[in-house]
Structure formats: C-alpha cells, structure tokens
From TrEMBL:
It is a multi-pass membrane protein. Keywords: Cell membrane, Membrane, Transmembrane, Transmembrane helix, Transport. Uptake of L-lactate across the membrane. Can also transport D-lactate and glycolate. The chain crosses the membrane at residues 12-33, 39-58, 70-89, 116-144, 156-178, 190-215, 227-247, 253-270, 295-314, 352-372, 392-414, 426-447, 512-532. This is L-lactate permease. Coiled coil: none annotated. One of its GO terms (cellular component) is plasma membrane. NCBIfam families: lctP (TIGR00795). It comes from the Bacteria. It is found in: Cell membrane. The lineage of its organism: Bacteria, Bacillati, Bacillota, Bacilli, Bacillales. GO terms for molecular function: lactate transmembrane transporter activity; solute:proton symporter activity. It holds the Pfam family Lactate_perm.
Amino acid sequence: MFVDTFNPFDNVLLSSIVAAVPIVLFLLCLTIFKMKGIYASITTVVVTVIIAIVFFKLPANIASGAVVEGFFQGIIPIGYIVVMAVLLYKITNETGQFDTIQDSISSISQDQRIQLLLIGFAFNGFLEGAAGFGVPIAICALLLTQLGFAPLQAAMLCLIANASAGAFGAIGLPVTVIDTLGLPDNVSGMAVSSMSALTLVFMNMLIPFLLIWIIDGFKGIKETLPAILVVSITFTVLQAIITVFIGPELADIIPPLGAMMALALFSKKFQPKHIFRINKDEKPQKINKHHPKEIVYAWSPFVILTVVVMIWSAPYFKSLFAPGGALEALVFNISLPGTYSEIANKAITLPLNIIGQTGTAILLVIIITILMSKKVQFKDGGRLFIVAFKELWLPIITICFILVISKLMTYAGLSNAVGEGIAKTGSIFPLLSPILGWIGVFLTGSVTNNNTLFAPIQSAVASNIGASGALLVSANTVGGVAAKLISPQSIAIATASVQQVGKESELLKMTLRYSVALLIFVCIWTFLLNIFI
C-alpha cells in the first residue's frame, strides 16, 4: 500500500463502499451493459484511477507505475503462457498428433459426457496442479472444442471444472504461500490444507455431477452415474487424504491422475447405453485404430509438458533464481523511476526472469515437439506463432488492463478498505469470510495473490472474534476458487483460447450463477463449521 490510510473518509463503511466501485462497475459493464472485455476493462481503469488519486490520495507517479506494472505482468507471465499454450496446440495439430489424441480419447468412449469427465475435469485438474496460471483452461478448452464441444460451452465447462483444483494450483502454491506470511496463532499452510478438506470434499463430489447436468440434464446423470461416481470418489478421497496427511503440494497431481486412470479402466467394462453427442444429428464417428507407439507419440507433448512444468514449479528449481542461487544473475529486478514511496519504503519493481517463467517451460516443450516431428520444421513454428499472436494480442491487452485495476486497488488501499469493511461485521464475519476471498480472486485472478492479500486480514479477524484462523483462511482460499469461474483474467484467457474474443460478457453470464451458487454454499458451510469446530 502506497497511501497513508485506506480509510480516507474516516468511516470504514463509506470507504469500503467507494473502494468497491471498480468491482461493481466491471461486473455491470460485462453483464448489464454487455461491453466487450477490452472496453469494460478500459472504462474500469479510468474510474479506478480517479478514485485512487482523488479519494485515496495515491500519488500520480505511483498510479503510473501501477499501469506499467500491470502491463508488464499481463505480458509476462500470463500473456507468455497463453501464447505458448495455444502455439503448442497449433503445432500438435499441424503434426497430426492432435488427431491421434482425439482417436485415443474416443477409443475410451465416444460418449461426450465421458470425454468431458476425462478432459474437462480430470486432465484439467492435473494441468492446474502442474502449471496453473491459465494453462489448464487454455489447453483443455481447446481439446474439448476439437472433440465437438461448442467453443464457449467448452470454455464454461473448463472454468467450472477448475473449481475442484483451483485451491492447490501450481504445486500447492496458493496454500504453501501462507507459510511465508507469518500469520498469528501459528496458522500454517498445512493447517489450512487440512481444514480446506472439510469444504472441498463436497465441491469435488458435486462438480462432476454438475458438469454432466449442464450438458445433458438429469437423464445424463442417470445414464453415466457409475462413471461419475468413479471420477468423483477417486478424486475426492485421494485429495482429502493428501491434503490432511501429506500437504497441498500433490493435492492436484495424484488425485486427477488417479481419476483419469480409474475412469479409463472402468470404461473398458462400462459404456452408457446411449452414446451422447452435443450435436444430436452427429453420429459417433468410426474410430481410427492406432498402434500404441503412435498414441504414446501423440500424447508425448503433454506428457513432456507435465514433467517440464513440474520441474519449473518445484521449489529446488525456483531456488536457483533466488538471491544466492546459482542462476541469480539471470534475474533482473527493474525499479521504476519515480515510484519510490516513503510510506511503503519501497519502489515498484518489475522482476524479469525469462528462464524461470512457465511460458519458457512450454516453449521448451514446443522445441522438443518440433525436433521430434518429421512434418513440422522451425519455420512452420514461426508461421504458427504469428497466427497465434494475431489471435491473442487483444485478449492479452485486456488482461493487462485488468491487472492494472488490481495493482491500482492494491497500491491505493482499495482492497484493504473492502476487506476491512467486511471484517467489521464481527461475529457474523465467518458467514462473509469467503466473500473476501471471492473478491480477492476476482481482482487478481489468482488464489495465491488472494491469500497473500487477504489471509492476514482473515487471520487477524479470527483472533479478534475467537474463530479458527485456519478455518477462515481456508474459507478465503475456497471462496477464491469460486471466483475463478468469473475472474476477468480467466474469462479473457478462456475466450482467447477458443477464439471467441469479444464474447467475454456472454461467457461471464454463463458462469456467473455457478460461481455465486458455489460461493453461497461455502459461506453457509463456513458459518456452520465455525459454530461446531
């Protein structure tokens, strides 16, 4: 925070209401006014700048620095990841590997409900655990569209499915970051991991049912009930055991892998009586048979992607770039001139670490894929990169503006004001605690950033009202997961990956009710847990 106070009106309620204006405005622009994402984000940036400078007294030079930082982070890491993920897809499509992947999935089942459970739920969750930061949405939405799902429908389903894995994305980082915050009452990442299982066990069981209900109603649930139960129970039980007894790091690695393997094996014995296709007139296609070596080769980019991203996300790899690490010289911390603040005792700094970026990990996989291919050369990769960039530059700019809003709200104290406003509710706070996490992820697009921002507030309020700090911080985490369905960053990434730029408002309306429904459940359940724990 780069201002003297986040309560400029000497009234916490009034300050929090004014601070919430950008959030409300952005939602209204996308839903009621039906603006495209780029116009909604620019409008909100203008209003946020005015509120930050005029009411919260954020210095103009700091506001300018926030704009620069927002664009920097929008391009690196987020834009970098999205472009590389889409480029990987285009290259595998060019090599013919994607056709083989489709055939291998169809060989498990041509029923698109089963395919949705395999790709939209399980593989999505695995990529969230291995990479996070938009990679699962970009990859899995593309996979579903190639399997016959409508683009926006595929994006919506992947966003909803991601709620099962969002709490532990990128090797458990959203929860492990808690250990760096020094929270009161010794609230640790392990304690929050264990506590979150009490809520996630219900969400994880529900979401596969919800996915099937969305595309085929109760009839679909009845016809695929055994398959749904295999996926739900396998994922839920494994994640509960891991989060309670081991920790958050593998909570999105082993459970989705187990769910995928369990469903693939189960599907050899069970198939729905009626093969469901989204397009009713579309008949199940004849499955092309492939040699096991062809299937392994087709999936190899995603297998390699998983391994490489896990290496890139591992603590020992990240430590190489930390102060004193072997690769410290490759990291450049660029301080923006004129942004030093005596209040914050720091300047706005842009960390440039190209090698350590997840996008670089995907780029490495792209290079390996081209080297392994006899059909695609590096010049083809360059051509496909230009195609991908032309498709994605606008959504990346949109993401940049969204991050500008987040930075302005953080530096001007607007986020703190909103948090303090909710925290003033006292004994009723556990009911509203998840809303704080929901707002945090809506603003930042990241459960990790949300916990960094609001976990200290949750823990402090817990101490004041005699609640469990681990419970409220886990509520902050799970409430944040519900917001990933409608986070502007997630929406922008999803529409970009399925080539539906400009339809952000339509996708938001498709996911909003599910996000709110999940949030209401988490609020009520957290309130009940607080009473009985």
